[in-house]
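Collaborator request, handled under Task 6.
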Amino acid sequence: MDFAPLSSVFETLRLTPPPRLTLLDAQILASAHYPPFPPDAPALLMGLASPELALRVKNVLSVIYPQRHELIIVEGRNSRVISLDNLQPSIFDFSPSVCLYVPSLGEGTSFEAFGEIVAHLRAPDGCPWDKKQTHQSLRPHLLEESYEALAAMDENDTDGMREEFGDLLLQIMLNVQIAAENGEFTMAQAVKGIYDKIIRRHPHVFGGVELNTVDGVLQNWERLKEQERKENGKAQLEKGLLDGVPSALPALTQAQEYQERAARVGFDWPETEGVLDKVREEIEEVKAAQSLEEVAAELGDLFFVLVNLARWRKVDAESALRTANMKFKKRFAHIERGAKKQGRSLSDMTLAEMDSLWNEAKRLGL
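Structure tokens returned to the collaborator:
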């Protein structure tokens, strides 16, 4: 395909060629699902040959760029500035000679730019705090940021999720930078590892295997993992199906993951009624328990089977309990406010009075 010389394109754009530029055939971008270039540098897409191709390019660019991001269409000596959302079939006579200039999204918007500032934090002229960190010293921060991200997700707070996912990414980048400095592994190796794993475990997407149900996908996932364990040698082979579940997971999440993995190989009740029967059985055993040890054991069994019921009903047990906790907190705060309005302390109120305020909170939708 013949493209116009870059010099003439930038003459039409009335721009000095930038020091960094991605030059890409529009057809290559159109066949992707994610832009294969960093958005903090401009890109020039060559050969915008048809309206259909332009629409596919628009869809891929929309994964990263906002709809109001300005683009420049170039053909010969003619150019036109449009926003991404206006990249429509009717706005231009598309042909193999048409180019699309995509200006930079701005400093600090690429993964590479973020990697640079994290490496700078650890450099000799970096931050004293960051330079002192190790994998182990960063562990509590990774845990804290994970829970803050979960809290934002529980509240469906999209602004909070954007911020917390960024904070979580910082923790990952810091740990990988430390690993690179120690000669343990690099970000490229970490990315390559998960890249290969995703392709290997999704033969129904990237290979010729046909799987049309979620259950079929999960069962095949476990078969592939078992095969990987065999290929990794005897030490890996001796590990059980549940050994890969992290011991540091919250108990409800851990229980649900155990149950899901066991169910994938057929160790499960055939129907929900069996789980409900088990819930009733465990409640009776809690009632019959005498010693503290017996009560603790039976309550643990009850919690475990309730998690299984949540799994059967397609509910995430950890999220369900977190939602219930937040609901309790809001309703109890309403009781506290009610007591304060009455000029009383909670310890001076009767249970019936507090229960009345609780029911009022429920009516208010708290």
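The cover message to the collaborator said: "The chain has five domains: 6-102, 111-200, 203-237, 251-315, 318-363. The first strand starts at residue 22 and ends at 25. Please let us know whether this matches your experimental observations."
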